Amino acid sequence: MLIDAHKATLLVVDVQQRLIGAVTDPAGTLARIRWLLQVAGELDLPVVISEQYPQGLGPTVTELSAVAPAARVVEKRHFSCVAADCLPADVLAREQLIVCGMETHVCVLQTVLDLCALGKQVFVVDDACASRTAYSHATGIQRMRDAGAQIVSREMVAFECLHSSSHAKFRLISKTFLVVEQP
């Protein structure tokens, strides 16, 4: 199955001020998620950002919220966005969710497993997820794959949303975002 921009929402899970420094490669993680948010903005893909207990862990990292000013921000205390019942009904009504964020093996994993249990088509952006250790990240990705989630890269998201080089935004996306692959 391919990502369909008309059926998908981008869900960014818990990339918060007090958590980002604990993951492996915090600067790279932020750069990759920012890239994904910018592409989503160019393609008019709906965006939801979750925050785990923001009173204690702080808000979403400013450089991300700045590139997605129209994103809906939802708060939660459960690790899963689904268990927390914080996702708006219109988001849950969409067939596909593209998920990135942190931590891969906790909040991203539990959200993805719950979305799969709801019958959603879930695409986990491997290079836009992070954990405190590489092992935890890899284990979380494998478990989500085993549960039926599709594991994708940022470029897969961009090209599948574009669907064709005849898309009105193809030249803009390719010149702006695909010139040099970011790590």
From TrEMBL:
PANTHER family per the UniProt record, alphabetical: HYDROLASE, ISOCHORISMATASE DOMAIN-CONTAINING PROTEIN 2
Keyword ATP-binding carried by entry: no
Gene3D superfamilies: Isochorismatase-like (3.40.50.850)
Protein name stated in the entry: Hydrolase
Gene Ontology MF terms: hydrolase activity
Superkingdom of this protein's organism: Bacteria
UniProt keyword Manganese present: no
InterPro entries per the UniProt record, alphabetical: Isochorismatase-like_dom (IPR000868), Isochorismatase-like_sf (IPR036380), Isochorismatase_domain (IPR050993)
Record keywords, A-Z: Hydrolase
Segments forming domain Isochorismatase-like: 9-155
Coiled coil: none
Organism listed in the record: Zestomonas insulae
